[in-house]
């Protein structure tokens, strides 16, 4: 079965079922990763070499196992579809951002703050309506890249092994990739590997956002604003996405009690509930575009 049909099947399964409600493989993997971290980074004393070893122990055996299962006759294609389905977070992303927009439309700021707190790591208790909308719009653009497009990219390139390698690495970055006393050294490998795996997908996502929105503005924001952002991959994605939507994102935010003055992203109107909706629609249209390209590519090279 072609990678295009397998990709369509995985996305369709995600749209139909959403994330597994019980025993999600990534939740189980997270518990496994916690035990590994306790072993190699006890009391935050792990060095970079420990982080590299821990990453290999967490990711490589599972990736090899999925590779073997994907080669099995008759059922290998099921393993491929299941791997992509478990790695995708498209429907889940919509289920998290849409309630934020609905709460803002209902002028329920308290509920909007609570809901956006599920999406972002910044403090949300004192955000005003514009700041809530800004946080949610940023989240849908960035998580669309990490949890959706990058998974599809690596599945298209390397099949089930690729998407599993990427998703496990991305999960470890989310768990270990912090710049604090505990993870500064130990989490270095997880953060750098995730940056490497996201480098090409992030720029394809930025281009996708630009093509599907205000193209010239998106490209200009990507070129001028992305280099100022602290993340080499989130910068292009969010700058291009903000420009595509014609909305202002970025700015000050409080993380773990510390104020961070972030550069401005995009240009245009302040963020609001409509910005969240349009960001979510941009991600959805981008997925349709990628699937169309995969199908056309398969047909052309068949």
Task: Walk me through the topology.
Layout: H1 3-17, H2 25-40, H3 48-70, H4 76-87, H5 90-105, H6 109-116, H7 129-176, H8 188-211, H9 215-225, H10 234-245, E1 247-255, E2 258-266, E3 269-270, H11 273-301
Parallel strand pairs: 1-3
Antiparallel strand pairs: 1-2
Helix pairs in contact: 1-4, 1-11, 2-3, 2-7, 3-7, 4-7, 5-6, 5-7, 5-11, 6-7, 7-8, 7-10, 7-11, 8-9, 8-10, 9-10
Describe it for me?
The model has no long low-confidence stretch (mean pLDDT 94). This protein has one domain (3-301). It is globular and about 55 Å long. β1 and β2 form a beta hairpin. It is mostly helical. The chain contains eleven helices and three strands, in the order ααααααααααβββα. Strands 2-1-3 form a three-stranded mixed β-sheet. α7 packs antiparallel against α10, α8 packs antiparallel against α9 and α8 runs parallel beside α10.
